What does this fold into?
Amino acid sequence: MAGTIEKKLASSGITLPTPASPIANYVPFVRSGNMLVVSGQICFGGDGKLVAKGQLGGAVSIEDGQKAARACAINLLAQLKAALGDLDKVARVVRLGGFINSAAGFVDGPKVMNGASDLMVEVFGDKGRHARTTVGVSALPGDAAVEVEGTFEVAST
It folds into this structure.
């Protein structure tokens, strides 16, 4: 039976994908006490294809970058679901870290990251408000436009 958060996702038309498997020597998430760190998620959509490919400030618009960041956040939620079994166990979104595939001189990475941040607040309400870092990078795996990682406080087991 779906919990409150999953019902909220469904009412927003969001279906969580099967979480992506790591492509190198790392794990998708690590839990230490009540903290859960989720490895960076690139902007795969529900169809398994990148929502946006290339550099912001180049071929990718800010609006497409925001959609890509939102897709990353959905992928973070899928990893959380795999780790916890129930998204209602998320007590707080603590921090998001965003990596924006950026052309030289692109300075609007924070606007792009709002796609991920806005989703967390939409889904978790005040528990979704978080600290954040946004960094422009020259390349990401698969030429993805955006990658987002997250740290979450979770309920005790």
